[in-house]
Amino acid sequence: MTPFGAKLRQLRKERNITLKAMAAGLDVSSAYLSALEHGKRGKPTWFLVQRIIAFFNIIWDEAEELQRLAEVSDPNITINTAGLDPKATELANLLADRIDRLSPESLETLIFQLRSASSRDS
After folding, report:
1. What confidence score (pLDDT) does residue 102 get?
2. 16 occurs within a structural domain
3. Residue 122 and residue 120: Cα distance in Å, rounded?
4. Band of the pLDDT at 119, cuts 50, 70, 90?
5. Does a structural domain hold residue 91?
6. Number of domains in the chain
7. Which residue, of 2, 29, 36, 103, is most buried by count of CB atoms within 10 Å of its CB?
8. Does residue 34 lie within any of the structural domains?
């Protein structure tokens, strides 16, 4: 499941909306919506995210958060480290090899560390 898919499911469940009803309201198939929730489809288009925001009638911070989650929810990432420091290639390979064995706590720690490092290095 992607961050966007988890948030989408949470919004739907909180409002007691079925997958089928939401799919009809967005004019997409329920199979597509299910695949999006489960991370089996790529990140949604900007247009679809806007339709989802309107569907749930969410505004401001929650709408921005949904857009941010859509941006970081591509389940099929390719990392090109050509021309970067060799440590970048090592990091990318280690992550690819071990990500499925990391606990939620370890993932959260790594995300925090990467965000902190990138804000310091900017």
Report:
1. 95
2. yes
3. 6
4. confident
5. yes
6. 2
7. 36
8. yes
